[in-house]
Structure formats: structure tokens, C-alpha cells
């Protein structure tokens, strides 16, 4: 819960500045490390305030998937063809509705260079591919499909290519990525003050942002930023009041994906100086019901016993649809051939000899499941799914006895984070309600808009936070 006022404070009200720097970066996570590195490398004096006891942010706790494409060395080594155009076609289809085409275009065009930049920062990507998961593999593989690129409708829009890149280590890889980025920023000369929480922006009489107030153990510290303040303070999934106002479906999430720093303060202190926000209803919702992929041979239905999506698509698309459009009520129906415990131990809650029995046990409307399975099986005899277009390899008639895994909120984990934030131009300048840049204020990462207007693929958050973080730092330091 955010307590104090969001300001702004006025320059006239500051007596003596406690600290002065050229570029002041708020937060030392995915976007902040990159912003700080590029501002320092461009010659600016850079101070970072990090409210936690160490840098890394949510990114250090993350799976560490980074969405990169266009023909990276890892993609090529694994035998996948990709191009900037194919990546753009996929992302404009997947990140909408109302995709931000110019932002996506910039992201795709910069992707190969960003891959090289990460490698130069010491990130090692193993040139190997894991088919089984769209999360971090249990092995050291460096590449996964992370957004349903090989599933309908995207497989008909762009040539499917995996773009989820991971630093080389087993399991979650975010800590390793962040170790490289934190080290690089410090080597570039960035000064990092930890346990320092920025609360309020300071503006001059003409509205120019000239610094910020921060708190450390009850003391208030004023920081003057001669060139710019860069907000990279994360999103707002840990602020229930903001979720209720902008994005109520995410209140139902059972595992907030982030840190307590994702309290929305970075967004609100900028709103207090006139910043506009965008895409605030959008949220990623991971529903990690696979692996194993054999479960995809089952079907997922809502509380009305109806299918609503192709089960072979990205788990986040399924989680998002279930939470936003179906009240977080979903069931996975499987027969004996498809059934196995999922990777996190989710088991069938009901097993029945017949479909009407199962329907009754779950409490679905009479006849609903029977009708759904009859229609599914009718086409599945020919390995077809004309309703939702699941790939033929997963389509065959379901045969009783049948069981159901409860994929509803509660029995199953729904893991959300927010995708909306401060509106910025492509140089990460924060825009006001008229669309004009607020002088000397920049933002990147989850406190700003990113490439996802609503739809998401794993890796796009760290991908756009790091890439646009770099841009924010450079432009903050040099003006271009
Ligand atoms: C378990 C988990 C798995 C994930 N997996 C992936 C994945 O595989 N791929 C992917 O793309 N994304 C993933 N994410 C999401 C991703 O980590 C975040 O969305 C991403 O880190 C956002 O970057 P950021 O720089 O905006 O925020 P962060 O990386 O969280 O950095 C923000 C920093 O700002 C600090 N801060 C906040 N407020 C203040 C303040 N007022 N003053 C000073 N400091 C402040 C915070 O303490 C934090 O260190 C995952 C997240 C989690 C938790």
C-alpha cells in the first residue's frame, strides 16, 4: 500500500540539494540497469536509487526469458529461420488488440543488435532448443517457443520461430541475466544507492523535472538531476487499489508476479506531474498447466462446459482468456491416454466412467459438456479442430473414462503482472495528456507502456524493459 503524497515537490521549496547528478535512475532492475549503463556510457554522471537492499528487481527472480528474433545466432544454430518482418507480423498479431506498430517495429528492428549487446555484457546463450516448455527449461537450453508462435492463428500469420532466449543455466535464469547487467552498469561507473525509495518528483516553475525526493530509514533526501530523471520502478501488480481502478481482473490472481516495489509509485509520481498512462487494463496471466505437452490432447472448458481457446497456444494466452473473459473458471478434460500429473503436481479432481457423470460431478449445466465433447469428437476422428484450430498432432477423440483437472483460480495458480504504464514516445520521453514530452522525464520497463497493448508472450517484458531502458538512458544523457 502506498502511503505518502505523490507530489510533485517544487524546486523553489528545496533549500540545499543533498545529492546532485546528471541522470537520476529510479530502480535498478531490468530497465534501470540498462538505462544506467547507457547513460553512463554516453558520458553522463549517473546515480541510481534502488528501494531494495540490492539491485535486480523482479527480473532477478524471473524465469529470465528474453523475447528476441529476426535470425539470432541461437535461432540459426537451432535450425530456425526468422526475419525482422516475420517477427513483426507475429508481434502485431499477438500483442494487440490495437498493437503499437511503431514501437513493435523499433523492437523488431533492434532485436539482433540487442542480442549482441547482451552477449557483450557477458550473457551466454546456449545454442540449443527445448520443445517441451514455454517457460524456463529444466536443462540449459537457450531457446523456447514462448508465445504460441507455432499455434493458431499465429502459425498462419508468420513463419513459426521460437524467440524465447535464456541465459545458460538450469531452471530460472533471471538471476544470471541480472548479475551480468548489474555488473556491467557498475563497471560503466554508475553509482547505486540501495535502500533509497524515491517518492516524489521535483519540478521547476516551468514544469521541467529537475530531481526527486527519496526516503531512507525515515530521512528525506533530495536529488538534483541536471539532465534527466529516468523512471524504471516496475509496474503496479502489488497495488490492489490501482488494480481495482485500472485492471480488476488481476485482483483474482493467486501469485503476484513481481516484487513489493511493483506498487505503482513510479507511475503515480509521474501522473502527479501531468503524465498520461496507457494500456492500464492489460496484464500477463501465466497459467502454468503444462508441461508435459501430452496434456494438450485434452480440452479446456469454462464454467458453461464450453471450449474457448486452442489448447496448444501459449499458457499466458490461456490464462489471460480464462481470467479476463471466463471469471477464472476453467477445467481441463482428459481421457486416460492424455492424463498425467502436470509439472507442478496438478491432478485430476474428478474421474468418471461417463461424460454426463463428469458434467454432474463438476457442476456444469446439464448437457453442456456432452455437447462440447460430441462436437469435438465428431471432428477429432479426422484429427481436425475446425472450431479452435488446435494442431492435428494433439487432436483425437476423447474416450471415457474421463477426468477433469480443476484449472480455476484457487486450485490452479494464476500468476499476473501489469503491462500498462506511463505513455512515452519511442525515445522513452514521458508524455503528458496532450501528447507533449514532459521536459527531462523518461520511463521504461513496466512503469511505462511497452510492446504489449494487451497480448503478451514470455520474454517480452524483460525484452522491452532492457531494450527501451537502453534507449531511455542514452536519450536522457545526450538528448538524442
Ligand atoms: C517469477 C517471475 C518470473 C518472470 N519471468 C519472466 C520471463 O521469463 N520473461 C519476462 O520477460 N518477464 C518475466 N517476468 C517479469 C519481469 O521480471 C518483469 O516484468 C521485469 O523485470 C520488469 O522490468 P522493470 O525494470 O520494469 O522492473 P524490475 O525488474 O522489477 O525493476 C524495478 C526496480 O525498481 C525498484 N523500485 C521500485 N519502486 C522504486 C522506488 N520508488 N524507488 C527506488 N526503487 C524502486 C524495485 O525495487 C526494482 O528493483 C517474471 C517475473 C517474475 C517475478
Provide a descriptive summary of the structure in words.
With 480 residues, this protein is of the alpha/beta class. It has 3 domains: 9-61 and 175-284 and 415-478, FAD/NAD(P)-binding domain (3-Layer(bba) Sandwich), CATH 3.50.50; 66-171, no CATH class; 288-406, Succinate dehydrogenase/fumarate reductase flavoprotein, catalytic domain (Flavocytochrome C3, Chain A, domain 1, Alpha-Beta Complex). 28% of the residues lie in helices and 19% in strands. The protein has helices at 30-41, 57-61, 73-77, 84-94, 101-120, 154-157, 174-187, 240-246, 265-271, 315-325, 355-362, 368-380, 460-478; strands at 9-10, 19-26, 46-49, 66-67, 129-130, 143-144, 164-165, 191-193, 197-203, 209-216, 219-231, 277-278, 283-286, 299-301, 331-335, 348-352, 402-406, 415-418, 421-422, 429-431, 437-443. The strands form 5 sheets. Strands 1, 2, 3, 8, 9, 10, 11, 20 and 21 form a 9-stranded mixed sheet that branches. Strands 4-7-6-5 form a 4-stranded mixed sheet. A 4-stranded antiparallel sheet has the order 14-15-17-16, with helices on one face. Helix 11 (355-362) packs across helix 12 (368-380). The mean pLDDT is 96. Residues 26-32, 49-52, 57-59, 61-65, 197-198, 232-234, 257-259, 261, 265-266, 417, 445-446, 458-463, 465 line the site of flavin-adenine dinucleotide. Flavin-adenine dinucleotide binds next to helix 1, helix 2, strand 9, helix 9 and helix 13.
Amino acid at each position: 500500500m502506498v502511503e505518502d503524497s505523490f507530489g510533485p515537490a517544487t524546486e523553489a521549496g528545496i533549500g540545499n540539494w543533498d545529492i546532485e547528478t546528471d541522470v537520476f535512475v529510479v530502480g535498478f532492475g531490468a530497465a534501470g540497469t540498462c538505462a544506467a549503463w547507457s547513460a553512463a556510457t554516453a558520458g553522463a554522471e549517473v546515480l541510481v536509487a534502488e528501494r531494495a537492499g540490492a539491485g535486480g528487481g523482479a527480473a532477478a527472480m524471473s524465469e529470465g526469458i528474453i523475447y528476441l528474433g529476426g535470425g539470432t545466432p541461437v535461432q540459426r544454430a537451432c535450425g530456425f529461420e526468422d526475419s525482422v518482418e516475420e517477427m513483426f507480423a507475429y508481434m502485431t498479431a499477438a500483442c494487440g488488440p490495437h498493437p503499437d506498430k511503431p514501437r513493435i517495429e523499433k523492437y523488431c528492428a533492434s532485436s539482433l543488435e540487442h542480442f549482441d549487446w547482451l552477449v557483450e555484457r557477458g550473457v551466454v546463450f546456449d545454442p540449443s532448443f527445448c520443445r517441451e516448455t514455454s517457460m524456463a527449461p529444466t536443462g540449459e537450453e537457450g531457446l523456447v517457443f514462448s508465445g504460441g508462435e507455432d499455434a493458431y492463428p499465429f502459425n498462419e500469420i508468420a513463419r513459426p520461430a521460437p524467440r524465447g532466449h535464456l541465459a545458460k543455466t538450469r531452471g530460472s535464469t533471471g538471476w544470471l541475466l541480472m548479475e551480468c547487467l548489474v555488473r556491467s552498469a557498475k563497471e560503466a561507473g554508475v553509482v547505486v544507492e540501495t535502500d533509497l525509495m524515491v517518492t516524489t518528483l521535483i519540478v521547476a516553475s516551468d514544469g521541467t523535472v529537475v530531481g526527486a525526493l527519496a526516503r531512507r530509514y525515515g530521512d528525506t533526501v533530495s536529488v538534483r538531476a541536471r539532465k534527466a530523471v529516468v523512471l524504471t520502478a516496475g509496474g503496479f501488480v502489488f497495488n490492489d487499489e490501482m488494480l481495482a481502478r485500472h485492471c480488476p481482473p488481476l485482483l483474482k490472481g493467486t501469485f503476484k508476479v513481481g516484487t513489493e516495489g511493483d506498487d505503482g509509485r513510479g507511475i503515480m509520481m509521474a501522473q502527479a506531474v501531468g503524465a498520461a498512462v496507457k494500456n492500464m487494463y492489460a496484464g500477463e496471466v501465466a497459467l502454468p498447466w503444462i508441461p508435459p505437452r501430452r496434456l494438450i490432447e485434452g480440452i479446456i472448458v469454462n464454467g458453461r462446459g464450453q471450449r474457448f481457446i486452442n489448447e496448444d497456444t501459449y499458457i499466458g494466452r490461456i490464462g489471460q482468456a480464462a481470467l479476463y473473459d471466463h471469471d477464472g473458471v476453467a477445467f481441463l478434460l482428459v481421457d486416460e491416454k492424455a492424463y498425467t500429473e502436470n509439472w507442478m503436481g496438478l491432478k485430476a479432481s474428478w474421474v468418471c466412467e461417463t461424460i454426463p457423470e463428469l458434467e454432474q460431478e463438476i457442476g456444469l449445466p446439464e448437457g453442456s459438456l456432452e455437447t462440447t465433447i460430441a462436437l469435438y469428437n465428431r471432428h477429432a476422428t479426422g484429427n481436425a479442430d475446425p472450431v479452435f484450430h488446435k494442431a492435428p498432432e494433439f487432436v483425437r477423440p476423447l474416450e471415457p473414462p474421463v477426468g477433469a483437472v480443476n484449472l480455476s483460480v484457487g486450485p490452479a495458480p494464476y500468476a499476473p503482472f501489469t503491462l500498462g504504464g506511463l505513455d512515452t514516445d519511442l525515445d522513452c520521453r514521458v508524455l503528458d495528456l496532450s501528447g507533449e514530452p514532459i521536459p527531462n522525464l523518461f520511463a521504461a520497463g513496466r512503469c511505462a507502456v511497452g510492446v504489449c497493448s494487451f497480448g503478451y508472450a514470455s520474454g517480452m517484458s524483460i525484452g522491452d524493459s532492457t531494450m527501451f531502458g537502453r534507449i531511455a538512458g542514452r536519450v536522457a544523457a545526450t538528448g538524442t
